[in-house]
Amino acid sequence: MSVELTYFQAIVLGVVEGLTEFLPISSTGHLTIAEQLLGLPVDDPAVTAYTAMIQIGAIVATFIYFARKIARLFLAWVRGLRSAQAREDRDYTLAWAVIVGSLPVGVVGFLARDLISGPLRNLWVVAAALVLWSVVIWVAEQRHDVLERAGEQRDEHGITLKDGLVIGLVQCFSLIPGVSRSGATISAGLMRGINRVTATELAFFMAIPALTAAGIFELARGTEAVLALGVGQMIVGIVVAFATAYASIAWLLRFVATNSLRPFIWYRVALGLAVAAALWAGWISAT
After folding, report:
1. Cα 243 from Cα 281, distance rounded (Å)
2. 81 occurs within a structural domain
3. What angle do CA 159, 110, 244 make, to 5 degrees?
4. Closest of 66, 11, 43, 30 to residue 238, by C-alpha
5. Considering its fold, how many domains does the chain have in total?
């Protein structure tokens, strides 16, 4: 049976994608919940591909918001490839940390693509991941507080290749719906002794290759299926996701400058328990 996507559904999914992509509350988890509430089959290949492709809007928002910094890091990286002296620039190391940190999720995502787009697209998985990864975020925040009091936190000038690799490996857990890519990367950054704002920016930078690769892969694999949902609906979803993602990035950076991630923890736990209760009561189905 073919899936029909209305413009209203496209707008809702675009808003959900844009608002949740960079918040540590899991965009995939929220999209899966939204799809279920909208009456869409969450494990349908066309629906899965559509939600991956509207991430293009979030990617563009990240590029525009951080255009100057991305250009600065790219130029430092290019100069470092040509000159030993330029490799002393901390931006060169930061650029490599982002590159190295972006590789693991791409490899794991490709190898486990059928599992990710199939069995894991289940609301029981989302509910469990929302609650369980909240414990990781809480532990990371506790460590952040200890290091902050001791004055042992690092900013972007203290980022190492090892930081990038560790954060990148932890980012692989975000392939489980409900974990949250930004929640995984920010938590890993805090555990590594990186301050909250820098860890959040790293999450944004590492999102660019991850989301771009996911969008291109789904475009190549399921163009026909996605287009069957409607070209107009896809464009609307991307545009709405861009606008809401840009606003979300600006808000989150201001928020983490003076606040912890603990409010998101309580939200995640409450949502996870609510979804589990709805599933147990039979009000919604898992797929």
Report:
1. 36
2. yes
3. 65
4. 11
5. 1
pLDDT in tens, 140-166: 999 999 999 999 999 999 999 999 999
In sequence order, the 6+-apart residues with CB closer than 8 A to the CB of 253 are 197, 200, 201
At 160, give phi and psi (nearest 5°).
Answer: -115, 165
Domain around 48: 7-281
* Share of residues in the chain with pLDDT > 70 (%): 95
Domain annotation covers residue 287: no
Output the CA–CA distances (angstroms, integers) from residue 77 to 43, 98, 159, in the order listed: 40, 11, 14
Is there a domain that residue 2 lies in?
A: no
Mean pLDDT of 169-195: 95
d(CA 252, CA 221): 33
- Under the banding of pLDDT at 50, 70 and 90, the label for residue 1 is very low
**Rounded to two decimals, what is the model's pTM?**
0.90
